Amino acid sequence: MRPWLATLFLGVLASGAATAAEKPYYHERLIFPLQAKHVHSSSVVECPNGDLMCAWFSGSGERVTPDVEIRGARLKRGDAAWSDVFPMADTPNLPDHNPVLFITPQQELWLFWIVVPADRWEDSLLRVRMARDYMSDGPPKWYWQDLLLLKPGDRFAKEMAKGFDQLRRTLPAHDPRQRMIAAYAARLRRQSRDKSRRQRGWMTRCHLVVLPSGRILLPLYSDGFLACLMAISDDQGKSWRASAPIIGAGLNQPSVVRRRDGTLLAYMREEEDLKHRVLLSESHDDGETWSLAVSTDLPNPNSSLEALVLRDGRWVLVYNDSEVDRHTLLLALSDDEGHTWLWRRHLENTPGGRFHYPSIIQTRDGRINLTYTYQPGPRTGKSIKHVTLDPDWIKLGDKPGEKP
Questions:
Q1: Residues 6+ apart with CB under 8 A from 2
Q2: Per-residue confidence of the chain (404 residues) as pLDDT tens digits?
C-alpha cells in the first residue's frame, strides 16, 4: 500500500473510532440529599455569568400548611455541586408555592410565585419580586416586590360562556366530558361574572416567553375556573393585562412555545379524570386569544409538563407519559415544530417512584438542563434532581434494561 494511501486509511479509521467513542453528554445529580420535607415544583434559569439558579417550594405539605416557603440554590459555572440551600421568599403565616424564575432581556432576575390564603388554591394571590444583584453567593438581593393582580374583565365571562358552549358542541353525546361540563358550566359562568373571583386564583408553573416584538407572556392557570390565560406585558413588565382565557375540558398549567410562522402553542395537563392526555391550544395573535383546547395523542396522568424550542429549531417536550401515575418521565424530540415526536427517551422509569413537575431550559453551551421533583420510592424522601444532557442523547432512545 502506498504511504499516502496508508496514512489516509489510518486517518479514516481513527476518525471513525473517535466518532464511535463519543456519546452524547448526560449527567445527573441531586441539588440536595433526599429529605423528609415536601419539596416540589422547581424552576431553573441560567444567569448571565453562566451560573444556574433553581427555586422550589418546601415545607410540611401543600396549601394548608403555613410553613411552606420558596427555597433556592445556585450551581456556579464549572462547579460539580450545588450550593447550600437558601431562602427565596416566605410570606409570614401563609404557604408559598409554584416559583417561576425569569431573567429579563435587561438581565434582571424576577421571581413569580403564589401565596395561598384560606387554604384554597382558588384564593391564591400572585406575587413577584425583582433583583439586580443575584450572581454572588447566597440568596438574591431583592429591591422590589408586589402583588400582581389581573383584571380579566367582562371579556373573561363572555369568553368562558362561549368556550364551554363550543366545547359541548364539539363532543359526542356519549362523551363522559359532557356530564362534567354540564355539572360545572353553570357554576363557572356565574362565578366568571364575579369581579373578585376572576381576579384571584391565577397561579404560576411554567417559564415565561418573550416574543420577537418584546411582548412578555406569563402563563397562568386557575383551579377554580379550570381554565388558563396569559398575563401580557408590552412595557417590559411595568404593567400586565389578561388575555382571553383558554377553555377546555379541565385544563391547567400551560407551557408556551412559538413556531417560526408566529403561531403560539400552549401544551397543558388535564385536571379532571377524563382522557389522560396532554391538551393543546393555539394562538395566532401573539397570545391575545386562544383556540379551544383539544386532546393530543400524548398520554399523561394529569401531571405538569414543559415544552422548549431549541436554538436549532428542534422542540423538546418533557412529561409523564403514563396514564396512571408519575413513575415515568419522558423527553420527546421533534424536528417539525411539534407535529410529530419521532424520538423519545426516558429520564426516569421506576415503578413506585414519583418524578414530576419538570422545568427545562437550553443553556448557552447548547445543552439541555432540567430540574424536577425526585422521589425514587414511597418512603425514600424527596429532592430536586438536576440533569444536563446533549439534545442528541434523546435520539438514542431507550435500550432494554438501561438506566439513564
A1: none
A2: 444 444 333 343 344 433 445 899 999 999 999 999 999 999 999 999 999 999 999 999 999 999 999 999 999 999 999 999 999 999 999 999 999 999 999 999 999 999 999 999 999 999 999 999 999 999 999 999 999 999 999 999 999 988 888 888 887 888 777 777 777 777 888 889 999 999 999 999 999 999 999 999 999 999 999 999 999 999 999 999 999 999 998 899 999 999 999 999 999 999 877 789 999 999 999 999 999 999 999 999 999 999 999 999 999 999 999 999 999 999 999 999 999 999 999 999 999 999 999 999 999 999 999 999 999 998 899 999 999 999 999 999 986 555 54
DSSP classification of residue 306: E
Cα–Cα distance measured from residue 337 to residue 350, given in angstroms and rounded to the nearest whole number: 30
Give the number of domains in the chain.
Answer: 1
Query: H or E stretch including 397?
Result: none
Residue 50, in any domain of the structure: no
Spatial distance between the Cα atoms of 205 and 214, rounded to a whole number of angstroms = 21
Q: Which residue has the cell 375540558?
A: 249
CB 48 within 8 Å of CB 32: no
Grid cell listed for 98: 409554584
Q: CA 41, CA 241: separation in Å to the nearest integer?
A: 25
393: Cβ contacts below 8 Å, ≥ 6 apart: 24, 25, 26, 345
Residue 212 CA to residue 309 CA, distance in Å, equals 14
The reply to whether the predicted model has a pTM over 0.70 is yes
**Angle between the 153-170 and 176-192 helix axes, to the nearest 10 degrees?**
170
> Which residues pair with residue 362 across a beta bridge?
368
Structural domain includes residue 175: yes
Ordered strands of the 69-75 beta sheet: 38-46, 52-59, 69-75, 86-89
Tell whether 257 is covered by a domain. yes
Q: Look at strands 227-233 and 216-222 and give their pairing.
A: antiparallel
Q: Which domain holds residue 156?
A: 151-201+206-303
In a domain, 324, yes or no: no
Whole-number Cα distances in Å, 100 to 17, 88, 126: 44, 11, 11
